[in-house]
Specification:
The protein has 92 residues and is mainly α. Helix content is 45%, strand content 0%. It folds into two domains: 1-41; 43-91, no CATH class. The protein is built from six helices and no strands. This is DDE Tnp4 domain-containing protein.
Length: 92
């Protein structure tokens, strides 16, 4: 979250960079695989409505109307074929 390098985190917690990287990878794998991911993560489908927090807000609505696939302020332009369109949706 802070954007610090493993070297800075290792120095802060007085551990080796190898230990920090290993533990970070352990946590990342646990959060991105079953059962945690399948239980707590739900990607939006193409036919899902825009959440009211976005649709009713003048702060978000003009910029995020009908946007699918934007994540962390990054949007990658993609033009897949008709057959590949659903598999390409919401991919990094």
């Amino acid at each position: 979250v802070t954007g610090l390098s493993t070297r800075h985190v290792a120095e802060r917690f007085q551990r080796s960079p190898t230990t920090i990287a290993s533990k970070f990878n352990d946590i990342l794998i646990r959060l991105s695989t079953a059962p945690f991911y399948t239980k707590h993560v739900r990607l939006p489908r193409a036919d899902d409505p825009t959440p009211p927090e976005i649709a009713c807000s003048t702060k978000w609505s003009p910029f995020f109307d009908n946007v699918i696939g934007a994540m962390d302020g990054t949007h990658i332009s993609c033009v897949p074929s008709v057959e590949e369109r659903q598999t390409a949706r919401n991919r990094k």
